[in-house]
Amino acid sequence: MSEIFNFCAGPAMLPKAVMGQAQAEFINWNNTGSSVMELSHRSEIYMAMAAQAEADLRELMAIPENYKVLFCHGGGRGQFSAVPLNLLASGKTADYIVNGSWSKAAAAEAENFGDINVINVRETHANGETSIVAANQWPLNPDAAYVHYCPNETVDGIEINDIPETHGVPLVADMSSTILSHEIDVTKFGVIYAGAQKNIGPSGLTIVIVRDDLLGNAQQATPCIMNYQTAANNDSMYNTPPTYAWYLAGLVFKWLKALGGVKAIAKINQAKAELLYQTIDNSDFYLNTIEAQYRSKMNIPFWLKDESLNDTFLAQAEQQGLMALKGHRIVGGMRASIYNAMPIEGVQALVDFMQEFEKVNK
Questions:
Q1: How far apart are CA 253 and CA 52, in angstroms?
Q2: Residues 198, 272, 297, 326: which is the catalytic one?
Q3: Whole-prediction pTM value?
Q4: What pLDDT sits at residue 212?
Q5: Which of 81, 104, 278, 340 is surrounded by the most beta carbons within 10 Å?
Q6: Is 246 a catalytic residue?
Q7: CATH of 17-258 given 1.10.3670.10, 3.30.70.580, 3.40.50.970, 3.40.640.10
Q8: Which has the closest alpha carbon to 3: 357, 345, 351?
């Protein structure tokens, strides 16, 4: 079998260098004679590692001092609850921009905790392309407690590239599938959260970046484990955090810094996406139905025009070491997730297979 390339949407592949280092350190980390997963999270050596991981993430994203970085449990879905519990005061409303499956799920969860205004911005053009209403046309409430949106929808392959202007209303972003993939201005956001299992590390860890002025406003019913102020006051160690996932995230941050940081990986990600989209667009055998300016660079769905070939495509792709290309059950077809850890060689291998498959089956 050729080299394996894992196109899973999450948990996603991790950089080989990171996996190799973790393997080498697995039973003896920093000459402690123990695995990092066996050490107390309050031990001096572990806390030093945790602090370095936060410092590296702050450097990578240019996170200002007036933002807290929290290492939390619960994944992105946990934050679907934590955001309204921490930010939505009684008598206030929150705007939820819905452009795909995950933003829809976030809005549905938030409705359990307060008054939510759902703004559907997805539309279909006459030619069948899926598009997004321009952000300057969104009917936002100037008195909202916050505006929530998902810049990159992993299921649907839709990406909103421009940061919406909310005129002072705190902007909350679910960046689970796009964090660290390109440079952003953190100061444009009140809260950024991201499940780790795509561009950061293994599942079980969630990063929350929250501006200081948004702390201390949690609803009384907020569980302590979801309270941003509690997490900030205790350096994300109010209880035992996901220690091994935190360690692996720290290794990923160092790997990304060694590559040249977010600016460098963004160029690689752009090249990977262009290569795959060009292959799809130059073919009458495959198609993608997202308007070009809203196409995701992380999650690329595509369909075979003859869907009776789907099972054959997937089986032969696996034989070539191209794994997890089956599309999400909601949308069908295929999906190639090409997060930071996916090398351009993996995308080239996929493109080569797609072209050969088309030649044989057309």
A1: 10
A2: 198
A3: 0.96
A4: 98
A5: 340
A6: no
A7: 3.40.640.10
A8: 345
CA distance 250 to 336: 26
**Which of 149, 220, 165, 185 is closest to 67 using CA atoms?**
185
Instruction: Choose the catalytic residue: 29, 174, 272, 326.
Output: 174
Catalytic residue list contains 174: yes
Please state, in angstroms and rounded to a whole number, the distance separating the CA atoms of residues 244 and 227: 22
What type of residue sits at position 334? Answer: M
Question: What are the helix (H) ranges across 184-260?
Answer: 228-233, 243-259
β-pairing verdict for 322-323 and 334-337: unpaired
Give the C-alpha separation, 203 to 162, whole Å: 28
E strand map for 52-175? 67-72, 93-98, 115-120, 122-124, 130-132, 147-149, 152-153, 158-159, 171-174
Q: What distances in angstroms separate CA 358 from CA 3, 60, 332, 351, one per listed residue?
A: 22, 41, 19, 11
| CATH number of the structural domain 261-361 | 3.90.1150.10
Q: Known catalytic residue: 198?
A: yes
Report pLDDT for 334: 97
pLDDT on residue 128: 85
Q: Where are the alpha helices (DSSP H) in the chain?
A: 16-24, 44-61, 75-87, 101-110, 228-233, 243-259, 261-281, 310-319, 344-361
Which of 349, 74, 64, 101 has its CA nearest to residue 227?
74
Mean of pLDDT over the chain: 96
Residues of the chain under the 70 pLDDT cut? 1-2
pLDDT (0 to 100) of residue 1: 47
| pLDDT tens, residue by residue, 106-161 | 999 999 999 999 999 999 998 889 999 999 999 999 999 999 999 999 999 999 99
Q: Which of 29, 68, 95, 102 is catalytic?
A: 102
